[in-house]
């Protein structure tokens, strides 16, 4: 998740272990394209590039550039994230709508605590009992007998029903207010329990 591309909800952080090798490749590509006979007489940039690519373990299907190599490495990190038994559940779905996946890197419209909570939910490390190693007394919900997963807490636990209903009513009012600009709208009254 740390090094996966931003368009699949990864953080896209630079990995120093890659960058050192990528900068060596980039330097050798510049030397190779300069065609300076004095430098080419001293060193073999093509063999250094091949050695660096082999050290990274990348199998390139496109032109050998640091951008393509970095893209391939990030793609491999995403696949490794998807393969994780608990924290990788559902991650493969992030690649279906890449346009909706970069919001967490800008932090726009969120307070710091909201952003941290959102990132924890994205990366499947929210403080719920089903996370391995999180609870010493089992994975059952603190308020009912179901397994305490993030989806259970947010959508099904009776303990949060009032908050869910209030959020639903607030969103319904926002939608109704927009429709009122053009239509006659009657809102159904609900009783809070």
User: Average pLDDT, to the nearest integer?
Assistant: 86
Instruction: Flag low-confidence runs.
Output: none
Structural class given helices, strands, pairing? mainly alpha
Count of separate structural domains? 2
Total beta-strand segments: 0
Main sheet summary:
none
Shape: elongated
User: How many helices in DSSP terms?
Assistant: 7
How far apart, in Å, are the first and last alpha carbons? 40 Å
Return the string of H and E elements: HHHHHHH
Percent strand equals: under 5%
The radius of gyration over CA amounts to 25 Å
Helix proportion range: 40-55%
Model description:
The protein has 193 residues and is mostly helical. It has two domains: 6-103, no CATH class; 127-180, no CATH class. The protein contains seven helices and no strands. It has helices at 16-34, 37-42, 45-56, 66-82, 112-122, 150-155, 161-180. Helix 1 runs antiparallel to helix 3 (45-56) and helix 1 (16-34) runs antiparallel to helix 4 (66-82). The protein is elongated and about 85 Å long. The mean pLDDT is 86.
Detail the topology: elements first, then pairings.
Blueprint: H1 16-34, H2 37-42, H3 45-56, H4 66-82, H5 112-122, H6 150-155, H7 161-180
Helix pairs in contact: 1-3, 1-4
């Amino acid at each position: 998740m740390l090094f996966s591309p931003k368009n699949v909800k990864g953080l896209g952080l630079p990995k120093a272990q890659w960058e050192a090798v990528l900068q060596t490749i980039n330097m050798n590509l510049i030397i190779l394209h300069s065609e300076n006979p004095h430098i080419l007489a001293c060193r073999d940039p093509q063999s250094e590039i091949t050695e660096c690519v082999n050290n990274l373990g990348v199998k390139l299907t496109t032109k050998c550039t640091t951008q393509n190599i970095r893209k391939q490495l990030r793609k491999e990190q995403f696949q490794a994230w998807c393969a994780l038994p608990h924290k990788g559940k559902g991650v493969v779905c992030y690649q279906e709508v890449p346009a909706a996946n970069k919001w967490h890197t800008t932090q726009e419209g969120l307070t710091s605590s909201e952003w941290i909570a959102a990132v924890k939910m994205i990366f499947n490390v929210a403080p719920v009992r089903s996370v391995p190693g999180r609870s010493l007394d089992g994975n059952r919900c603190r308020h009912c007998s179901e397994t305490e997963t993030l989806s259970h807490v947010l959508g099904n636990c009776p303990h949060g029903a009032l908050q869910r209903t209030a959020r639903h009513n607030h969103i319904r009012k926002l939608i109704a207010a927009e429709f009122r600009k053009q239509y006659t709208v009657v809102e159904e009254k609900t009783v809070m329990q």
